Amino acid sequence: xxxxxxxxxxxxxxxxxxxxxxxxxxxxxxxxxxxxxxxxxxxxxxxxxxxxxxxxxxxxxxxxxxxxxxxxxxxxxxxxxxxxxxxxxxxxxxxxxxxxxxxxxxxxxxxxxxxxxxxxxxxxxxxxxxxxxxxxxxxxxxxxx
Length: 145
Known about the structure:
It is a single chain. By secondary structure, this protein is of the alpha+beta class. It has a single domain, classed as START domain (Alpha-D-Glucose-1,6-Bisphosphate, Chain A, domain 4, 2-Layer Sandwich), CATH 3.30.530. The chain has three helices and nine strands, in the order βααββββββββα. It has helices spanning 18-26, 28-34, 124-141, and strands spanning 6-15, 40-41, 48-49, 57-63, 69-72, 74-80, 84-89, 95-104, 107-117. This is SRPBCC domain-containing protein.
């Protein structure tokens, strides 16, 4: 059975500069503070980020309540300092592109655009999980997380 590969786009406003938001996705110590929805954590020792085209972008999300583990292995396919990060996940072939744009007044717009999204990652629960992760990123960038 072939899955319907769709697209998903989420746009959010973040506190701080585009450069700061961009760095949060490439610095493992920041990454673990927001990656994944509430009720999930990412052990620092599972994160490998090689900030270059062709570099690894790997991590494992762990469900707090059950200990279930969800590894992600991806490759950075596009990288523009302070502006854009694109990765392709090895298992699903899904491409996730994050675009960062300074709005002024210490605010940034981030757009997540995913393509080749399998059905299991494109429903209401997936969108809620992504938004929860963005909520955690807002808290982190605001110095509250």
